[in-house]
From TrEMBL:
Record-annotated N-(5'phosphoribosyl) anthranilate isomerase (PRAI) domain positions: 15-197
Name this polypeptide is given: N-(5'-phosphoribosyl)anthranilate isomerase
InterPro entries: Aldolase_TIM (IPR013785), PRAI_dom (IPR001240), RibuloseP-bd_barrel (IPR011060), TrpF_fam (IPR044643)
Organism: Thermogymnomonas acidicola
Record family assignment: Belongs to the TrpF family.
Database matches in HAMAP family: PRAI (MF_00135)
The keyword Isomerase is annotated on this UniProt entry: yes
Length: 206
């Protein structure tokens, strides 16, 4: 995974989400992704399954399983991402399964979002992913409010054009999916390579 090796040491991690197959996971990790996300809700177009998760994890690629309701169990994934309204109780329950937790905060006032960030972090979420599907890079109010807070990630309609803006706020994680696709559920190798080439160009500047 030479691409991933070349990105070591950077402050911000990158998660390529919406992975539906092993080939795309290997390609993304090779290009520079620090982790890949597999959506476990079968009602979502870009969903995967447990077999895919286990096969990807067996290759040493960190996997995040993305859940729209509380998972009943886990397997070999590194993290579970709680992508539904939740609080400290759900974070603690997920942690008790022996995995890291990524919480998603994507609604309410800015004050509400900051409050939920604090609650989830105090309960043990390693990363709180702040999402605005209309385009997080355009939400300067959110970026400024969360800038510098530990364990903050940004998500929402992210593309390579947003990288310089987002990295200026030094998030722990940037999450993206659709901008790297050839079609829903299938990544475009050229787009993925170009994205991580831009990451490597910008990383020394931030």
């Amino acid at each position: 995974m030479s691409g991933s090796q070349s990105c070591r040491g950077r402050e911000t991690l990158f998660k390529v989400c919406g992975i539906t197959n092993v080939d795309d996971a290997v390609m993304a990790a090779g290009a520079g992704a620090d982790m890949v996300g597999v959506i476990m809700d079968k009602k979502v177009v870009r969903h995967g399954d447990r077999r895919t998760v286990e096969e990807i994890a067996s290759m040493g690629i960190p996997v995040v399983t993305v859940h729209t309701s509380m998972p009943a169990s886990v397997g070999s994934e590194r993290y579970v991402q709680l992508h539904f309204p939740h609080g400290a109780r759900e974070v603690e329950e997920a942690r008790s399964m022996g995995v890291g937790v990524i919480s998603v905060v994507n609604s309410g006032t800015l004050g509400d979002m900051l409050s939920r960030y604090s609650e989830c972090r105090e309960a043990g979420s390693e990363i709180v992913l702040v999402e605005d599907r209309s385009g997080i890079a355009r939400r300067t109010d959110i970026l400024e409010a969360f800038s510098g807070l530990p364990g903050v990630g940004f998500a929402g309609n992210v593309s390579s054009a947003d990288l310089e803006t987002l990295m200026r706020f030094r998030p722990r994680l940037i999450d993206l999916s659709r901008s790297l696709e050839a079609e829903p559920g299938k990544k475009d190798a050229r787009k993925v390579e170009e994205f991580f080439r831009e990451v490597r160009r910008l990383a020394p500047l931030h």
